[in-house]
Amino acid sequence: xxxxxxxxxxxxxxxxxxxxxxxxxxLASAQTPPANTAVxxxxxxxxxxxxxxxxxxxxDALSVKANKLFILSRNHPLEVLVKLDKWTKVRDAxxxxxxxxxxxxxxxxxxxxxxxxxxxxxxxxxxxxxxFEAQRGVLLEVTAPATDGWVAVRHRDGQSGFVRxxxxxxG
Length: 171
Description:
3 domains
């Protein structure tokens, strides 16, 4: 029985490694831009998504039968590592990596305050009026794409303004 289990585990491991090597070139070729297009900088190439209006489960593999790592709260921002038809491999602000079902992802984007306190200002300028401050961990809805180091956000209470991208994660 021991030899059978070792043999079975070896075949399973080999199959996973083979699948990873077969899938990697396909993913790379699917994301390679044509030669006549400009290539975005690595910072601009990072894609973020957020969990929808209901909590979602983060799995250790792309199956509902896989181990459940933890539950992600609604609107939780995530970095996209790999996107497939029904599953997306993601990383959260703390560095945890796992898979979520695409049906769990929402249409709205959110950022999470990563600084001890983030300053939300009236305009995208350091000297602009301070609208409010948000503490570490607070989620803010993204209302416009980030430009020049600032991102337009709205708090769930309705206040809105601009925050430095260095003070938030997910934007």
